[in-house]
Every structure is written in C-alpha cells, then in structure tokens.
Amino acid sequence: MDDRRPPRRDDGGSALPSNRYTPGSGYRPRSESSSRSPSSRGPRDWRDQDWSEEDRRTPPTRPRSPSNRRPPSRDASWDNRDSWDDAPQRRPARAGAGYAGESGPRSRSARSRDEGDWTPAATRNGRGAPPKKKPNRAWLFAILGLLLVVVPSVVVISQWSRIQTLIGRGGDPLFPWAHQTQQTAVNPDYDAFATQQAAIDPAFKAYYDAHAGATLLGTPLTGALPTSGGLAQFFTDGALLLPNAQSSSAGSVSGDTAIQIAQTTKGSNDVVRLPIPPALLKLGSQLTVGSLSYGDLRTAAQPEKLVSSGTPATPAPDATSDSPVLFAVKNGSGHTIPPAIWAYVNGSATSPGGMLANFGRPLTEALETTATVDGASHHVVVQPFWYGVVIVDNDAKDGKGQPAISVAPAGADYLRTLGPPTVALAAKTPAWGNASAALLDAPATGKVVGTIGVNFPLTLTGETKWNKTTLWYNANFSAAKRSGSGWAPASALTLTAPPKDARPEAGLDMLSPDLAAYVDSQQKNLGVAVYDVTRNVYYGEYDKETFYLASSAKVYIMVSYLDWLEKQGLKPSSNDLNNLTLMIENSDNAAADRLYYPQGGAARQVSFLNSIGISGLELYGPVPTFWGYTRFTPTAMVRMLTLLNTGKILNDDDRKLALDLMSHVEADQHWGVGDTAPKGATFYMKNGWIDPPDGPWSVNSSGIVVAGSETYIISVYTDHQPYSEFTNPLKISKVCGDIAKLMV
Description:
about 750 residues; alpha+beta; six-stranded mixed sheet; five-stranded antiparallel sheet; 31 strands; about 25% helix; elongated
C-alpha cells in the first residue's frame, strides 16, 4: 500500500513518508510532531496495528473564507479581492440591454433595493450600451447553502457503512463489535437461565442430532422463542435460529443483539447457529472465559488485529495440518488456528458438517490465559469463533493423553448477561406440547387447570408474561367434552406442528380434574391410560407405573403366538384355536401355558414386544418366567390394543380372530370395561387378577370400546388391593364408568 500523499501547491513540503501531513500546514517532517501519540502518525496499511481510524481519513481541502471568494466572472478587473463594491461593471453582450433607471455602478443601498432587477431598456449609458449587471448575491448564498447541504449528505451516504462501523452499529458484519467500548455486567436476575432445562424443540431436533448437539450445544435452556427474526432456542454452549422468511428487523434491546448480527448476513431459511460470541463481544460481557472477559476478547478481535502469513487462500474445511493454519478472512489476511484446535473444529465426531457450519471463522488468534478448575490453576488456550469459543486445557488430558478440548458456555453467558430476545407472538398462534407441563390459571403461581403432554394442541391468545426467567403463554384448549384456558410455560411448548400421525398426549386431568384427583388419592396403586381414538388424543395418570399383568398377559401371549405361526407360514390348528379360546374367553391358565412356553416363553415375549415398539416388560417374582408375575404399564397395554385395532400387527385373519375372542369373554368377567360400556356399545376386553408374592391383590381391566362413531381404548391397573376389590372391583368400575361418560 502506498504510504505517500500527492503534494499540494504552495505547501512548501513533500509527501514523502518521512513527512507529516496536516490540513493547516501541509506536509511537515515527522520530527516536528514527534510528541504526538502513536495514533497520529502518517497513514499506514489497514493491517498495521498502529493504523487508527483517524489516519485513514482523507485530509479535507483548505477552506476559503467568504471574504476571499471570487464572484463568478472572468473579468481581470475582479482580481482585486479586497473590495467587490469598487469593481467596474461589465456590459451585457446583447445590445439594448441595461439596468433599469441606472447608468453606472450602483451604490450599496441601490444594490440592496434593485439587486437582480435588470431588464432590457431603451435607456443606455454614455457609451450606448447597457451597464453590466452585478452578481446576484441572493443566488450566491442559495447555491452556497445548497452545496453545504448536498455535499455533506453525499459524503455521509457514501460512507454510511463505514460510519456505522465506527460507532459500532451495522457496517461490516465481519466486525460488528469494532471500536465498541461498552461493558455489560452480569444481571443477577438472569442467573437462573444457566440452570434451567427445556426440551429440544422439534424445529431444531434434526440439526441438533446431526451436528453433535450434545457436545457443541449442550442442554437446552429455553424453549424455541418466537422473535422478529424467527425461532430461537438457547443452549448451554450456543443457540440455534430458524429464520423467518418474512421476519422484520430485530428489536433494539440487548437480548436481540445476536439476532441483529445474524440479520446483517445473508442466509437461507434453514436452521443456523446464532453468532453468540460476536454479540457478547459487541456489548462487552464481563463474564470470563478462563481469566479473559468477553471485553478482553473484543480487544483482540478488532479488524486491525488480523494477521497474514503470506498464504492468501483458506484451506479446505476438512484439511488437516501439523502446523498452524491461516484461515483467511479479509484481503488474504485472517487468523491462525493451532493444530489441536484445527483438528477439533473439523473433526467428524466433534464437528460433523465441518468447521464453517459449527464454528464459523476465528475471531482472534489463540490466546493464552489461566482458568481455575476444581480449585487448581490450569494453563489454557482460548480461541473464539463466530459460533463458539474453543478452550484447550493443557493441564487436563483426554482419553488419548492429549490436552482436553471443550467449548465455553457461551449460550448461558449470553442469557446471564443480556437476557432473552424480544418475543414476537401473534394472537391465535397454534402451539403443541413439547413436554409434560401443567396449565395454570395464573402464570407460575396459579392453580392447575390440566396437564398437557407432547403434541397436545393449544391455541395461543398472544398474551405473554415473564416470571423471573420463565416465559408463560396464555392458551386455549379443548379435550373431549371439556374446554378452557390456562397459562403454559413456553419451555414446554413448540410452535412447530408435529407429523400428521403423531399422537397428542395429556394428563387425565385435562379430561376430568375430578377423576384425576380420585386416581391421585390412591397413591400410585392405581394407573389409568385412555386413548380417544375418535379425536386422536391420549390421556394418562400414573400410566407409566408398572403393575402385575396377571391374566392381562394372555393378550400378549395370544398376539405373540399368532405372530409366531405367521412367521412360519402357518395358520392356527384346531388345537391352537381350542387353547386360544380357553385362554381368552375363560381365562384358563393351563391353556395359556400350552401357548406360552412352546413359542419361547419370556424371552420370546420380550423379543416380540420389542419388535413392535413396546418395551419395558419386567420379569418378576419367585418364578420370573411365569407370565402372571410379569409387570407392565397401562400405557403398554393401550399401545398393544391400538396396534391390534388398527391392523398394524398380525394379518387380517388373525387380527379378526383375536378381536372375536376378546368380544366373547364370559359374562362373569365383564366387570370393568364391559359392564360400564355405553348401552349398545361393542367391546373387546380382557381382565386380570392375582394374589402376588409381595402383597395384596392386583386387579386390572383393559379393552376396546366402540359406541356408534366414538371409539376409545382403556387400561386400568391396580396393585395392593384388599380381597374385597377382587370380589367386587369397585375402583376399577368407577374409573371405567367415568371414562365412558366422558368419551361418549
């Protein structure tokens, strides 16, 4: 880069590098200004660390005062600059033209009255020609004013990007923090963000899994927050953004800083990492990485801090190297990346998809510092990248004996310093459950209205409230014969629609708070699972607890036996049909043994259930292989009956056989599902009862109920019941009867 400026006339100096240019006196030897600060030296290459923004500016031309301006005339008589009033008038070129009522130069008072009123006239001066009109001073001032407005405006517009960069706004997105001096302290009100846990939003689940999210992002700290720039979810070590194609500019609060920076770069509508480190650098978070604050990192990340090793090209993202690698950023310059960090940011296990997708470009050179780890001082190397900060701990070793490498908790640092971004939520926005959560009649402190689960549909009203670090949405809901509204934590919701075949889930209290309260009163000795087939919603209360199957296990034995025959290309023999009938319709245990053990016993049961997506069968008791002592959940039974009802297991003939057997259970075993089914309904059921080795009676009832256009599947299990509950199962009948009234 040429370090010389062209000399000006009358400067009396030279533009040699050894001389100093000043607007007032031109070029002077540098020795005359040796007492100036280093930043006032002559222009340098932009990569030189001594090159300041002031040095880059072009010196303005020397202004002239109004007293030494020339009027717009070429007449030599105007060379006298001391007095324009004494200058002779020049005649107009056209004959017959002159100044009305005046034949000679006018006085100051005459000019003030008649300035600019020249018209052709018959009166001529003594030389037979009209006098020359003097310059119109009003026009001169108008033109001068226009220039004073237009020229600076043009300069400002042409340099707007540079100006914004200098003041820390907009400008070059490579260095959005350039020349910022702001320091931002940790806000203790936001400390709880660092310890919160949320579910990974479906909008980001695929990206999280494909890009080593557990390693590079860590635990989700918030739900997916709707912002002006799209959906944003924050994790311990970073954040993700799903841009909105119609997004507007982000708000001006500090929590929007990362989104503002992301919007300065062109991107797709696919999931991207949010530039968390640049946001922390821009606002100078006082949180530290090792012993360096983000303000310290910002000082090391200015544009003038770029280096060059003479290698203009950036290596391919998957390149490996045993020496530092230059990653070019601008004009062939950039930052060098040590070999260990280069391998980490490009490793297939730690950074699938490559460096640019997971880390972005480096922001500084690798910086040496110290950190306190488990009370001891460790020597660490820190290198911030666009999407994350890499830490190499030279005093800790990984499994291969190499220095341990990790990423800083930049996502938690962002929330603790700046807080969350501004939420932009429209009324009537559809939402779905992303985790189990209680709906309350007031945010955080209200009473429970109901419990939602994954995929449960809600309609948000648009009203939101923050309670400390938890955002709450007001939402409307509908469940069978009940509807209402409540407040749900945003961390348990998603604005991403689930697949069409997804099954919404909710607590039994969404169906009936009173029924749920009754089940709760049984202290986990009663579990209920209900699938509303008509509306495709599942409800449960203690439905994930395990209970003794007793004779309910015969449903599994029947289905697995028919599947075992199908895999051999066989149909049930007459002997098979006889055993199946005795086992299901009469609940004969000996018949069950004749079907259970030949197919492989407990091992075959576990294998078959796993093959159809049902897991968790527990073998229990003094005889673990005995089918009556196996324990399972109400949810698992409802899942089995759902697969059977929809034809997703067994061929059509075997499925019809199984349902026919369950529809002809003998009358004295209709208690529970059968006796409480709506009048005229068809039901397919199987009950169980047993006196287990570790306590009182276990009694259960499960089945499919079809009443006109309504279909529901139910399973009610109990443990530790008195003998009277076996002889007259009032608890099971109450629950089954209440469900029937709620469904039909």
